[in-house]
Amino acid sequence: MNGRPTAAAAGKIDVGGDLTVNRLGFGAMRITGPGIWGDPPDRDRAKEALRRAVALDVNFIDTADSYGPEVSERLIAEALYPYPEALVIATKGGLVRPGPGEWVPDGRPEHLRGACERSLRRLRLDRIDLYQFHRPDPRVPIAESIGALAELKDEGKIRHIGVSNVTEQQFREAERVTAIVSVQNRYNVVDRSSEPMLDLCDQKMLVFIPWAPIEQTGTIPALMAAARRRGVTERQVALAWLLTRSPQVLPIPGSGDPEHVEQNIAAATIELTAEEIRAITLALLSR
């Protein structure tokens, strides 16, 4: 891997005040089968994608028990265990999968406790560094769900707690129960509906993990022009722009293809000019 761009070029970010990772991670949702259901078409290739990411200095991997379900966590352990000392594996609980394309919230404390303990076994961990509540359940007060995670933290099974797919009000309710160190919401150049949550993370110095960090970029001329000038892909420029958006942003592009993983990581070395950043940002504001 000598001479290849690595995730270290993105700089570093602190998670919870006691974990430091490179600011370009890997999202492990896409190492599963079509529709995020079942095994990937080529398990060995998916595991090689994970190994390639770690070889290129990715030391933050995001997954969830619902990816597969269970498939993503198992593949991570098969590919990477025993884990490098600096590797942080974040996982999530709170969604169940009755079938392909179905995602059903389950925020009951008993479900979250069982989900966390099963993730610990699949990942072969004694403690999960960052455990995220995957999505609030309208049937369960968020304080009860987060309270279950706080208990697991007190028991030493979770190091830090994060939330995902939340509004500001839901975040405020969660942080009244326990310390929240991260927010994972959908955010990219096309969908910036979570802008208020990103601004809140900026204010509080929390990690903001944009899921689906790469969307269709062909309708953003300024982004396309920057890619052409540099001889890189539009996806890479979109990731580079995310890294400029805030020092609290930790993008997690994912792929089951080792070459795509390498291409995504290379985005960490793209230094957009102030003019390019301004042009792309103005184009997004006008959408």
Task: Name the descriptors.
287 residues; two-stranded antiparallel sheet; seven-stranded parallel β-sheet; TIM Barrel; globular; alpha/beta; 10 helices
CATH architecture: Alpha-Beta Barrel
Strand order of the largest sheet: 3-4-5-8-9-10-11
How large is the count of helical segments?
10
- Largest sheet features: 7 strands, parallel
Secondary structure elements and pairings:
Layout: E1 12-15, E2 19-22, E3 26-27, H1 43-55, E4 60-62, H2 71-80, E5 88-93, E6 95-96, E7 104-105, H3 109-123, E8 128-133, H4 142-154, E9 158-164, H5 168-175, E10 182-186, H6 195-204, E11 207-211, H7 221-230, H8 234-245, H9 258-266, H10 274-285
Parallel strand pairs: 3-4, 4-5, 5-8, 8-9, 9-10, 10-11
Antiparallel strand pairs: 1-2, 6-7
Helix pairs in contact: 1-2, 1-9, 3-4, 7-8, 7-10
In short:
The protein has a single domain (10-215, 245-270), classed as NADP-dependent oxidoreductase domain (TIM Barrel), CATH 3.20.20. The protein contains ten helices and eleven strands.
What does this structure look like?
This protein has a seven-stranded parallel beta sheet, with helices on one face. Strands 1-2 form a two-stranded antiparallel ribbon. The chain has a two-stranded antiparallel sheet with strand order 6-7. The chain contains ten helices and eleven strands. It has a single domain, classed as NADP-dependent oxidoreductase domain (TIM Barrel, Alpha-Beta Barrel), CATH 3.20.20. α1 crosses α2, α3 crosses α4 and α7 crosses α8. By secondary structure, it is an alpha/beta fold. The longest helix has 15 residues.
